[in-house]
């Protein structure tokens, strides 16, 4: 949705298009990270707005760790990563958010190493313990980089941490690109997360491109991945898209809802 909209307008748009809830973005931009600094009054006002419109915010896409990753070689950046995590969990607790989607990067803007992976795991453990205190579930997003672009790779860290508050929140667009690269099956990969999938991002992609692809113009087999996710117990599906300045932005949002709902409504 256009950033110029206020939260009441955003939630109203979601309601108009038939969505059950909205996922809030906390990306690496200063404007989105500033959401973590909302005052108690601003948080209370947003809760009132959610109740007024009838559409809650129930999940968070926390991609701000791309700039401030758990595994950064700079200790100051690692400290900032945990500060962001703590504030994101507190915001989730205040707004009633149940699931935070974590970016599956040890590092992004530098070269990964054995040390970055160790630091990632160490700080991930701290993050999960923080989330558990507030009853907020963390789920890895499967990303576009080699570090964690499949559910199977995510599960290595889920098994390592071994905590019920850490699971996998896969992005089926990214999974489809990874499967094309490796010559593997998206459905088999989803199966490796059995019992640990907390939600699914429904996103369109084409080979080599991961963002801003209109729904049903790419190569993601939505009926197959939704059916598989449903069989694995997933009941939270989020259509992920970006505002690209198109005048028909709201029609695109409604289109995504309607086309994905046509599939979901056949699930039993």
From TrEMBL:
Xylose isomerase-like TIM barrel domain location: 14-243
Superkingdom assignment: Bacteria
Pfam families xrefs: AP_endonuc_2
MF terms (GO), sorted A to Z: intramolecular oxidoreductase activity, interconverting aldoses and ketoses; L-ribulose-5-phosphate 3-epimerase activity
GO biological process: L-ascorbic acid metabolic process
Alphabetized UniProt keyword annotations: Isomerase
Classification via InterPro entries: L-Ru-5P_3-Epase, Sugar_Epim/Isomerase, Xyl_isomerase-like_sf, Xyl_isomerase-like_TIM-brl
NCBIfam families, sorted: hxl6Piso_put (TIGR00542), PRK13210.1 (NF009689)
Protein name: L-ribulose-5-phosphate 3-epimerase
Lineage: Bacteria, Bacillati, Bacillota, Clostridia, Eubacteriales
